[in-house]
Design goal:
78 residues
Length: 78
Amino acid sequence: MNRRHLRTVAVLDPQTLGERIRFARTENNLTQEDLAAGIGKLTRSSKINKSLVSIWEKDGVSSPTHANLMAVQSITGF
């Protein structure tokens, strides 16, 4: 049986916004839930959740607002 290793670490040279958010989150040992909760507190928004952070990290349809990006920076230092 050929087993594939799970990719559990961030890209070493993040290029896209999603890769950069994931890199910042994983470097700080935060889960997507942790990051979403922190952003929600800083921006006083109840709309931030794990699913939205996941979409951002996959460079999905939705991208973070400026306020959300500033919250990510404040939480992670990146």
